[in-house]
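Researcher: Go.
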Amino acid sequence: MKKMIVLISFCSIVLLLSSGCKQKTTEPSDAGTVQYIVKPQHDIPWPSLGQTAWPKALHDAQCTGRSSYNGPANGRVKASITVANFATDPVMGPDSVFYIVADTSFYAVTLNGTQLWNVNLGRVHGLQNYNSPILTSDGALLVGTNNGISAFNKNGALLWNTQLNDAVILKSCAVGLDGSIFVISYSGTLYGISKSGAILWQKNAPSGDFTWGTMQTIPFAPDGSMFYVGGSTAQQSLYAINTNGEILWSDSLGGMQHGAISVDVDGNVYTYSGDDLVSVSPTGKVRWRVVGAGRNWNVTIDPNGNIAYLSNGNLVLVDNNGQKRWSVPVGMDDFQTHIVCDASGTFYIETADNVPTYKVQAISNSGKTLWTVPVDALVKTGGPALTREGYLIFPQEGMPLPKYVCVIE
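Model: Structure:
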């Protein structure tokens, strides 16, 4: 009996020691009694946009940043394609050609790096042209210019140019279900434009300006009846506007709206106001708020309706009700980083601990780092795109020259 007691005690000690020697992991866990809200998402059909893997910045009319395809599994640079400085978000054509604006030129490039054509767009207010193109279902490529907005065909020929009251940056642009175009000029004026380039209406904000810029977006409600634009005042931070230019409601979110605005399949809105991340219902009621989240370019909505955002050197995931699931350290220099995710819910980001060496990372939906690719970058004016082949296209501002676009497999 004494031998049995000694044996049991010895086994208990060994078991305790072995459990204490397990390798520590930084992978977050959802273990526990917390019940997280799952809201399955899907691509909302949008026949006026190009039916490609990535027809516009942040992928779709709701600006979810979520692809219908899985992204790269290996984390290797397949190609480095040289373009000019300050490359914007690339968009994909139906034939594995991507279109991108860099410095003052508009390029069509294959995934192997062959340049098919480029068109000089000129400068915007004396600076680089920060316009990301939009591909429509009839094959037109919309691009902002110093005096308004232009449309080109897939061969780079100009279809039309519409002059507005100022320059345009096309992340502050949307295409409605019928092909109508909605865009905000540098002067803060909102325009409705037909798909042939005719001005339908224009509107100024009742207070301050409608916000525009390289990170601002105009997302549509799922049924296409209204879209959302940001406001420059704390009193009117977010506007819901119908396709005739009528303001349906406006919200005071406590600070100027900034960053991309995104919408989920239920019509809930996600955006930044001041230093907070805010979710708003389709009727304008604040659903939840993450105080002190910080400022960033965008959030992304994963296939289960979770919201991923960057905050103070961490990638954070909250469920659809704003309840935190996990937080993963990624790099402190995240203020100019775009986030996208693929069909399996893997997130792709670029951050840095020591500028100018950045790292592109793939992080699983459970918060595990799958791979890391170091790249040289200085300014990240453009965000990534995911292709149907499973590649991640990431514009870089190389240091030193040349400037290039990474294709990661």
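Model: The longest helix spans residues 2-20.
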